[in-house]
Amino acid sequence: MSGNSGKGRDRAGARGGEAAPAKAARPKGARSGVPSSNAPRTNAPPRVPEGTGLTARPNPARIAAYFGLAVLGALVALAGTLVQAAWFPGGLIIALAGAAGLFYGGRILTGTQIGALAPAVGWFITVFLLLSGRPEGDYVFGDELGLVLFMLGGTAVAVMCATTSKVPQSATRNGRSGI
Predict the structure, then answer these.
(1) What is the pTM (predicted TM-score) of this model?
(2) Rounded to 5 degrees, what are φ and ψ at 6?
(3) How far is Cα 106 from Cα 161, in angstroms, rounded to an integer?
(4) CB 3.0-4.6 Å disulfide test: which of 7, 8, 95, 128 passes with 84?
(5) Distance separating alpha carbons of residues 149 and 83, to the nearest angstrom
(6) Is 122 exposed, middle or buried (0-12, 13-18, 19+ CB in 10 A)?
(7) Among the residues of the chain, which ranges form H helices?
């Protein structure tokens, strides 16, 4: 007999009209009594799916990024109030462009809507604190038209950046170059 005693008998039995015994195909090295890797485990506890969005575990680096974006939002608001009051039409455009750049940059940096909302919250808090004025009656904003345009423009930019449906992907990230 040869070293492969089982294979020859199965083939010979199938040719000779005998029914070959049905054997389950086992991968090499599999032990009997141990279920194959493709079989479902019946004794395993059910898995809880990972949370996404606000139900995901807090990430300390992401929280620090959101806090840093909120601080940057406060600084952009402070600079914007001074610039828009100093040079009315051009300063207002520069202040709103700076706010738009920060809000959209936060959205791109984090890839989440909260990335645009974090600097917007810092911006809003700072602008409202600067609106409160001083006991003498003065406040930082120059004229009422600039104040209204700065508030409405900043609010509109924050809403647009926070509600964009998807962050655009670069063509080079996907391995495609060119148009």
Answers:
(1) 0.61
(2) -75, -35
(3) 9
(4) 95
(5) 13
(6) buried
(7) 5-15, 60-86, 88-110, 114-131, 144-162
* Nearest of 59, 67, 126 to residue 99 by alpha carbon: 126
* Residue 62 · residue 68 · CB < 8 Å: no
Query: Two tokens at 130?
Result: 């600067």
Residue pair 94/150 in contact (Cβ under 8 Å)? The answer is no
**Stretch (H or E) spanning 173:** none
Summarised one tens digit per residue, pLDDT across range 130-148 is 877 667 766 666 667 778 8
SS3 track for 113-155: CHHHHHHHHHHHHHHHHHHCCCCCCCCCCCCHHHHHHHHHHHH
Residue 75 pLDDT more than 60? yes
Is the distance from CB of 139 to CB of 127 less than 8 angstroms?
A: no
Residue 106 exposed, middle or buried by CB count within 10 Å (0-12, 13-18, 19+)? buried
Of 176, 76, 77, 92, nearest in space to 142 by CA: 92
User: What pLDDT score was predicted for residue 166?
Assistant: 67
Nearby residues of 155 by Cβ (< 8 Å), 6 or more positions away? 124
Tell me which residue of 87, 154, 88 sits closest to 127, measured CA to CA: 154
